[in-house]
Amino acid sequence: MKSPLVFVIAAMVTCIVAQDPYYVWPDVFNDEERDAFYYGQFPDDFKWSTATSSYQIEGAWDVEDKGESVWDTFAHEGTHVANGDTGDVACDSYNLYATDVQLIKNMGLSYYRFSLSWPRILPNGRPDSASADGLRYYNALINELLDNDINPQVTLYHWDLPQALEDEGGFLSDDFPQWFNDYATYCFEQFGDRVKFWITFNEPWIIAVLGYGDGVFAPGLNGIGDKVYNVSHNLILGHAMTYRTYDSTYRASQMGEIGITLNSDFVEPYDRSIPSDVEAASRSLRFGLGWYANPIFKNGDYPDIMKEKIARKSAAQGLASSRLPEFTEEEKNMIKGTYDFFGLNHYTTVYCVDSDQEDLSNPPSYYKDGDVNQWKDSSWPSTGSSWLHVVPWGIRRLATWIRDEYGQDIPIYVTENGVSTKDVAELNDEIRTKYYTSYINEILKAIRIDNVNVKGYTAWSLMDNFEWAAGYTERFGLHYVDFSDPERPRTPKASANAYAQIVADNGFNSGSTVTGALCLLVASTLLALINAFVPSTCFEF
Ligand SMILES: *[C@@H]1O[C@H](CO)[C@@H](O)[C@H](O)[C@H]1NC(C)=O
C-alpha cells in the first residue's frame, strides 16, 4: 500500500511551489502587472504616522478665552452640516489628549500629525490676543507625545480660521499673508524647540474651492469663478512668507523641516491610446495639484496652461483682467522653492476625457476652466463617502506623476490616506484593513520599483471624528468613538491592529515564506500524528 508520507510530502511541495499572485481586491483589481501584491520592506528610516485636526477632535469650542473659528460659526448656523452636528465636543481631545497619545503608542507609531487651532492660540487671530490656556494645552499635548517617544508633526492651519479675521476678509484680504506669518512666528517661538516638522496649510484646494467657491465648507462663500483664485493667491503668498521666516530666523536654532500639504485625486485618462485624454489628465492635475505645486515646487508661478486658459476665458467673459491674479517677479522669487518636503493627501482616483471644446461661457467657474470631463467608475469599490472610491493603483501613479512633474529629489510625505465607513459600530472593518494594505503596498511599489522618494506615510485618521459637512455620519477612524457617550470612549478597530502590524514589519513579509513555514508546520504535525497513531506496519521507510 501507498505510504501516507507520500501525500504529506506532495502537500508540502505543492504549497511551497504554488505562488499565485495575491490580489487584495481580486474581484475588481486583478491585473497581474498592475495589482499583484508586492512583498518587501520600506526603508529603515521610513516615518509611520497617523493624523487628526483640531476642529475635528478637540471640542471645548468656547473654553477659557478661546476665540471662535469659522467652523464654529458655520456649524452653529445649523443648516450646513448633516444632522446639525457640530464640533462643540467632538472627540473631546481637549480633555482626552493623553488617551489619544496612548492609542498612537499602542500602534507602535513614532509620529503624530495634528493641527493647532489658530483661535485657541490667538483668540482674535493676532499675537496681541495670545491665550495662556491655548499655550498650556498645546504644550501639554506636545510634551505628552515626546514623553512617549512620539514626534509631533504640526499643521499650522487645518481650516479653523479665527472668525475675527474672516470678518476682515479672511483669505480674500491682502493682509492675509502677514496675519498667517505672524501667527506662525508665534508658534515657532513657542513650540519650535520641540516641533521639528511643520506643515503650513492643509489642502489649499479644499479651503479655496469648497470654502470660498461652492460654499459647502466654512466660511460658506460662493465665488467658484473668481474668489477661489484670490484665496489661493493669498494662501500661496502666506505659505511662502512663512517658509522664509522659518528659514531665515528659526531653522538654524530649531533645525526642523517645513512644507505644505496638497490634496489630489489621481486623474486617469479614460483611454490611454487617445492623446487628448492623456493631455486632459495632465491638464486636470495641473489645474488642481499644480495650482499650488507649480509655484512652490517648480517656478514661482501658476502652470502656463492655467494662465493661458483663464486669461482667454476672462476676456471672452467680458472682464478687463484675468480672474487668475498675477505674481510679481519679486513674489515669484520669494515663492519658488519654499519647501523642505511635499506633503500629499490622497484618497481616490477619477477617469477623465477632454471636453472637446474650450468653454468660454458665463458664468465663469473653476470647474469649467480646465475643459476636462471627469467621473468615478461605478465598478470601483464604494465606501462611506460618495466621493471616495477605492482605487489602490492611483496613489502609485500619482506619486510617479509628482516625481516626473516636480523632480526626483523632492521628499514626499503621504500626510493623509484612508477610507470612511458609514455611521455604524463596525469594529471588524475589513474594508479599511484592505484599503490600508493595498494603498500602502502601492506606495511600497512606488519606492522600490519606481524609485519615488516617499519618506513617510500617515493614516487618516487616528479615530472617528467630525467629518466636516458630513458631521458624524462618516467615520474614518482606526479607532471607533462612541459619540453618544459623554466619555467618548475609543475602541481599536481591526484596521488599527492591521496597520500596527504593517508598521511593526516595516512593510510586508514575504507571503511565500510565511505560507511555506505554515505548510511545513502543518505537514510535520501530520507526520508526527501519523507516526504516533498509525500502526508502524503501514510504513515501509
Ligand atoms: C481678485 O483678483 C483679481 C485679479 O488680480 C482682482 O482684480 C480682484 O480685485 C481681486 N478680488 C478680491 C476680492 O480680492
From TrEMBL:
The active site is at E416. Its EC number is 3.2.1.21. The keyword Iron-sulfur does not apply. Keywords: Glycoprotein, Glycosidase, Hydrolase, Signal. Residues 1-18 form the signal peptide. It comes from the Eukaryota. GO terms for molecular function: hydrolase activity, hydrolyzing O-glycosyl compounds. One of its GO terms (biological process) is carbohydrate metabolic process. PROSITE patterns: GLYCOSYL_HYDROL_F1_1, GLYCOSYL_HYDROL_F1_2. Homodimer. Belongs to the glycosyl hydrolase 1 family. This is beta-glucosidase. It comes from Stichopus japonicus. The lineage of its organism: Eukaryota, Metazoa, Echinodermata, Eleutherozoa, Echinozoa.
